[in-house]
Amino acid sequence: MLAMISERRAELEQQARELHGMKHLTVKDSRYSNLLQTKGRPMSQTRDVTVSSAPPPPSPPVNRKVDLYDDPSVFDVIDREAIEVASEDQSTFTELVRQLTRNCVTDVEKARVIFRWITVTNLNTMEFNETHVDADTPMGLLRGIKVGTESYHVLFRRLCSYAGLHGMVIKGFSKSAGYLPGKKFDDKRFRNTWNAVYVAGSWRFVQCNWGARHLVNAKDAPRPSEQSQVDNLRYEYDDHYFLTDPDQFIYEFFPCQPEWQLLRHPLALQQFENLPFVRSLFFKYGLRFADERQSAVMVTDAIGAVTARVLMPRALVENLVFHYNLRLEGSDADVMDGVSMRRYVMQTIVGNSVVFKVHTALKGRYILDVFANLITAGHNYLTGKPMRFKSVCKLGIACTHLERSMVPLPDCATGEWGPLKAYKLFGLIPRSHENAVINTGGDVRLSFVMRRPLRNFQTALRQNGADEKVLSRYVKKVLTDETVTFDIRFPSDGQYGLDIYTREVAAAAADVGADDRGKQQKQLLTHCCKYLINVRQR
């Protein structure tokens, strides 16, 4: 307790020193003599900004982030300037802030350029002179951050004070790396620190560390053969953590002081723990849960079943692709008794709802990871290489009572069931069956209309315990200039899975040499879509 009191006293003394230096601060902008244009509006010749000594009390923002800006590209010029300044050394905070804010008009732009300078600064490539770095300089503070004696949050607040902005350092809990849905914050783990800055008449959240956190993710780091990508990599950032709306920020961060939730109705810690575990992409894609009371952990029924539904904007239905993974809680293992646990999840899309139906095989606690990726217009997905997905949310699943366990789904390719994926990626329009599940008493004919020339299709009919080579005899393909049709017979009743693969054969293939034709034949097939077929012959 004494340590906490001493730490808090030190923080208050530091804030008092900074506020004292800000008293009667006046910022003169002489750069407007050429009437530069910012976002299409002329700027006045000078602008005085006087900052009061006392910061305003915390209260909910008067508007939302989208009311301040709806596209990060409005800051392109400012962002480039932050990158340029980050490539040089500044001896004092005054010099650094002067260079950063010389073309800023509003306090939002000042906060932005500071945020981007911090997120673009790559400490992994910086070297410091151990004996000639003053701790009370930008380089000294950066060195302290690198060795762990300072933090980005202190740096952000310091730069805000020099720029004439009120800034605060907020402490609390966060659902950071290693956190599992529904876990209690009952010790010192998952402590975190972030900022609030007063801009546009309201307090707003800023999290510099998480704005650039993917830069230290080993999975995203360039390989040695991709060294040319290093410079571009460090210029990437996550805009979600700049001026984040409080009702989104609360899903990941819980301050020790409830007033710094900036919510009209602050949550209790238990309510925070029970919120679903979502990531920034969840909000970037405009996702939400169909059940407004969606909890962090779902409890299965007597047969181990549970369903989660995520809603996406209707405008993204044809462009957003989802994926999933099911694993045991506290483990990366996603295989049970030699069977992939993904086979106990069925993901479909109904309207603008992404539905995940899960059947657990045994009693226990599980984690359902949900991933997504936005399809890029004009990108060629017929390469045979898997798409890269990023996490949007994690849900806990608790199976405490199991009367009867379900068998796994047929061993098809992982991912979404149904024909919508074929339309999203390859322009195939289902003419016969639009639903992922087909219930039949006999043969099935699947038919698609092609919006682009696809001249090579293959299928794989699968059934638990059956020989795939034997089942392949029961599928016939008919290909025309505009359609592809699959006629499927079934040797017996049961549940089947049908995978459809495709690849594109260039129109000029007939004109190339034998060696080139051989390379084309080796082109990998790309998964197109899959159906679940329940057969009960009369």
Features:
538 residues; Transglut-like_Superfamily_Mod; 28 strands; Transglutaminase-like; 28% strand; five-stranded mixed sheet; alpha+beta; Kyphoscoliosis peptidase-like; disordered N terminus
List low-confidence stretches: 1-9, 14-50, 214-234, 507-515, 517-522
| Number of H/I helices | 15
Using only C-alpha atoms, the radius of gyration works out to 28 Å
Shape: elongated
Report the mean per-residue pLDDT as an integer.
82
Portion in strands: 25-35%
Structural class computed from helices and strand pairing: alpha+beta
Order of the strands making up the biggest sheet:
8-7-6-5-9
How many β-strand stretches?
Answer: 28
Helix content: 10-25%
- Between the first and last Cα atoms, what is the distance in angstroms? 75 Å
Pfam families: Ig-like_KY (PF23265)
Biased composition (Polar residues): 32-51
Protein name: Kyphoscoliosis peptidase-like
Region (Disordered): 31-66
Fold and architecture overview:
It is a single chain. This protein has 538 residues and is an alpha+beta fold. The chain has 15 helices and 28 strands. Strands 8-7-6-5-9 form a five-stranded antiparallel β-sheet. Strands 10, 12, 14, 19 and 20 form a five-stranded mixed β-sheet that branches. A four-stranded antiparallel β-sheet has the order 11-13-18-17, with no helix packed on it. Helix 3 (76-86) crosses helix 5 (107-120) and helix 5 runs antiparallel to helix 7. The longest helix is centred in the N-terminal third of the chain and has 21 residues, at 2-22. The protein is elongated.
